[in-house]
Amino acid sequence: MSIVITVAQQKGGAGKSTLVANLAAAMATLRRVAVLDIDPQHSLARWNAIRLARTEPAATLTFSDLSGWRLAGELDRLRRDYDVVLIDSPPVIDADARRAIRGADLVVVPVQPSPPDIWAAEGTLKLAAEEKRPACLILNRVPTGSRLRDTTDHELQARGLAVLPAVLGNRAVFSHAFAEGLGVTESAPRSRAAVELRAVLAAILGMIA
Ligand SMILES: Nc1ncnc2c1ncn2[C@@H]1O[C@H](COP(=O)(O)OP(=O)(O)OP(=O)(O)O)[C@@H](O)[C@H]1O
Ligand SMILES: [Mg+2]
User: Fold this and answer.
1) Residues by chain with Cβ below 5 Å of ion ligand 2
2) Phi-psi bin for 75: left (phi > 0), alpha (psi -120 to 50), beta?
3) pTM of the entire structure?
């Protein structure tokens, strides 16, 4: 059975592309994975180009950047041919973001532990609710040694929002891996970031099963 995971959040820089790249890379050795980049900034297209040009090839991923009216058809095709489809979306709620949310089995909304990210997430969660799609928040760039995780978690749960029980810390290895066209599980498999990423992946898959 194929699953579609849309990573969406209207706030720029929340970690959408980082999360999609890392989830895709972590699953690529075990499943047929397609990445669909509907963000006109095309960060993931660049990541994928670096990945393809590597002298030491990384596990195969299929990449697509069709958007607009062709998006629904492309999603149907990818669903048929791949085990997992991961969609990276733009930092706006536009028609494409709505289509990507409509087609998702799960909408994952990265939030940094700060009020503007949380406020922006509400718009994305509202859209998921309108489209009757399950959605959850994931805390990203959580600073080590601060109480921000607990206080943010508490605040989000108090508002009745679904928060993934795994978080990603603020770790430079995420940006190093991205620059090499890799995920952290590939570039630094023993790092704290890779451990966190695997826990996040397991939690996401657990929400879909
Ligand atoms: N967990 C993390 N630790 C450290 N840096 C991170 C982490 N997650 C993301 N970043 C960095 O934050 C910046 C923004 O991340 P990213 O591009 O993934 O966000 P985005 O939501 O896709 O942005 P946009 O809305 O512009 O598409 C990047 O420089 C990325 O390397
Ligand atoms: Mg992005």
Assistant:
1) 16-17, 43
2) alpha
3) 0.97
112-144 pLDDT, tens digit each = 998 888 889 999 999 999 999 999 999 999 998
Q: What tens digit of pLDDT does each residue of 38-83 get?
A: 999 999 999 999 999 999 999 999 999 998 999 999 999 999 999 9
Alpha-carbon span 111 to 25, nearest angstrom: 21
Cα torsion at 183, 138, 209, 5 (round to 10°)? -60
- Ligand 1 centroid to 141 CA: how many Å? 9
99 has pLDDT over 80: yes
Distance of CA 118 to the CA centre of its chain: 16
Helices marked H in the chain — which ranges? Answer: 16-27, 43-52, 71-81, 95-102, 115-130, 148-158, 172-179, 184-187, 192-208
Residue bearing the CA closest to ligand 1, atom 9: 15
Domains and CATH numbers, the chain: 3-208 (3.40.50.300)
CA distances from 179 to 13, 54, 107, 145 (A): 16, 11, 26, 27
